[in-house]
Amino acid sequence: MWIIYGTKTSNKVHGRITSEPCSECNNNIFSLDTIHKYFHIYGIPFFPTGKSTSLVCNNCNKVYENNALSENRKIDIKNSRHKSTVPFYHFTGLVLLTLLITLISWSIYQDKLKEQAILRTPAVGDYYVVNFKNLFFMNNPDDKPKDELTDTIVEQKPYDFGVVKLVEIKNEKLILLVGNYTYKYPTDAKKSITDGIILMQKDYFTDYIYELPQNKVFDYYDKGDIQSVYRMSKFQELLYKAKQENQ
Ligand SMILES: [Zn+2]
Fold first, then answer.
1. What is residue 184's DSSP assignment?
2. What percent of the chain clears pLDDT 70, i.e. is strictly above it?
3. Ligand 1 centre and the CA of 46: distance in Å?
4. What's the 8 CA to ligand 1 centre distance in angstroms?
5. Comparing C-alpha atoms, which of 206, 198, 202, 207 is closest to residue 236?
6. Which site from 3, 36, 126, 231 is most exposed, i.e. has the minimal number of CB atoms within 10 Å?
7. How far apart are CA 18 and CA 26, in angstroms?
8. Rg, Å, the chain Cα set
9. 56 C-alpha vs ligand 1 centroid, how far in Å?
């Protein structure tokens, strides 16, 4: 994608001022022009980049540019009642960007609050996006997910992230059913929850059980070994189950 950006100017005529006589025609009334420059992206002004002031003789139209103004003329401009303030719209882009960042931060913060509330009061049926590698193989090498029936332990999968489902809370431990699939990115793992794949795909979960002490939950969450938690609404559950039956 390419971006159009650069600087633009807005011309603002401020009106008349009296200054030392024009070198051409001796007239001493001028119009004061101030040009404000601003940086723009796609034509949206982001921030001012400077201004230049010039005087135009009211009689012969001779232009006295910013850099060629005499000290006296500069003082006359400064003392005139015409103040050239930067137009507020030159900050439009910055204001919009600030609003956008604030909005995004706020919604991330709200999501985090919601997640923390779920983590504090876990319920059967919650889904966690976890880092399989850290949780099962790095942190607790002696405590891997087990399948009681076949008396086997889970094997390392190609990618780090996956989904576990809370099936029981027992002796202050979360009993978690381990997902069959791993993902390179936690966002893809989360998508399998939000898209209902975990419900619609029959073999999504294995028979491997991982027991997570409840008092460790926030440690793992802070470390990122628990990436996120999701509680599906009854409506969503019904919807996905109906979809599954139609397949
Ligand atoms: Zn003149």
1. S
2. 97
3. 37
4. 29
5. 198
6. 3
7. 12
8. 33
9. 8
The verdict on ipTM greater than 0.90 is yes
List all residues 6 or more positions away from 23 whose beta carbon is below 8 Å from its beta carbon.
62
Sheet containing strand 152-153, edge to edge, reads 152-153, 146-147, 205-213, 173-179, 161-170, 127-131, 226-230
Average pLDDT over residues 67-75: 88
Q: For residue 21, how far is its CA from the centre of ligand 1 (angstroms)?
A: 8
The Å distance, Cα 146 to ligand 1 centre, comes to 94
Tell me the pLDDT tens digit for each residue of 104-158: 999 999 989 999 999 999 999 999 999 998 888 877 666 788 887 888 888 888 8
Token look-up 């009642």 returns 81
| 76 close to 19: Cβ distance less than 8 angstroms | yes
- How far apart (Å, rounded) are the C-alpha atoms in residues 73 and 237? 76
Does residue 9 register a pLDDT over 90?
Answer: no
Q: If you average pLDDT over residues 184-200, what whole number do you get?
A: 93
Report how far ligand 1's centroid is from the alpha carbon of 102 (Å): 53
Q: Which of 82, 78, 63 is nearest to 24 (CA)?
A: 63
Q: Give every strand in the sheet of 29-41, ordered side by side.
A: 5-18, 29-41, 44-57, 63-64
Count of beta carbons in the 10 Å neighbourhood of residue 167: 15
CA of 62 to the centre of ligand 1 (A): 5
